Amino acid sequence: MASAIPASAGNRLRAFMLRWAELAGDAHPEWVRAVATSIGEARRAATPGNVVYDGLDGEPGYLVTMKGSFTRLTDSSLIDRDVPLDRYGPVSLLAVSKES
Fold first, then answer.
1. pLDDT digit string (tens) for 41-92?
2. CA distances from 31 to 14, 27, 60, 87 (A)
3. What is this structure's pTM?
4. Are 18 and 25 in contact (CB under 8 A)?
5. Is residue 39 a contact partner of residue 56, using CB atoms and an 8 Å limit?
6. What is the pLDDT of residue 46?
C-alpha cells in the first residue's frame, strides 16, 4: 500500500534520483515520481518476476519512477522488463534513517 513521502525524505530522494538519472544518461529527466511503500511492493512493481529472498519485503521503502533519455541503461540492468529502458527508469529503494 502506497503512502505519502515524509517531507524530510523528499529532498534526499530527489537528489539521489537526479544523480541516478545523470549516471544513467539524463541529468534532466522529464519527470520523477515516488511513493512510500514496502520494499517488497516496490521491488515487485519495478522488476516483475524477479524474486529476492533477503528478509526485507516488509521493510519501509520507496518506488521511484522517472521518464527521460537513459542512454546508459542496458537490457541487463533490469530483469523481465517490457518497458523501454531508454525512456523509463524504475527504482526501488530501502527507506533508512540518517542514523542507519
1. 888 887 777 777 888 888 888 888 888 888 877 655 444 455 555 556 666 6
2. 11, 11, 23, 11
3. 0.68
4. no
5. yes
6. 78
The grid cell for 14 is: 530527489
Is the CB of residue 91 less than 8 Å from the CB of residue 57? no
Exposure b/e, 12-35, CB count within 10 A at least 16 = b:
ebeeebbebbeebebeebeebebb
Supply the DSSP symbol for 4: P
65 CB-near residues (< 8 Å, 6+ apart): 32, 33, 34, 88, 89, 90, 91
